[in-house]
Specification:
Length: 161
Amino acid sequence: MLDVYKTSNKLKGFTLIEILVVLGLVGLMTLIGTANLREYQRRQLVAAAVKQFSGDLSYARQLALTGKKPAGCGVLDGYDVKYVSSTAYSIMGLCDGNVEKSIGRDSNTLPNSATASSFGQIVFKELGHGTNLTSDLTITIGGAGGNQTVLVTVSGTIRNN
């Protein structure tokens, strides 16, 4: 009967090998999680640049649709978004036979070191008359997180892909 209540002389705990295996697994999971987080952050930076750019295109389109004239504008022809460099573009009003008028958005920069493919000039014509494009235009915006595209149709529709 006394044997049942006898305490064991074995010490309870973990061996060094078990501790090292657990620490190795925790380290590996941390490494993988960190790499995935960094890639996600890069993709989000490109997505933010696409969102800003397509928002600015929509802004120019909306101004043209409503027929809002810039200061000093006689006859409104539309609003243009013009490629300046791979990281910059301008938004201007077009008046009196395509004379550019400032609307305070002359210099726009893509955020987060993103770059855009060359797109020349997109004119959103007044009161919903579409654009100056002869075919749909795809603009690629890229960065460390890959590439995304913005589609501008002849009718003036803007879509992010």
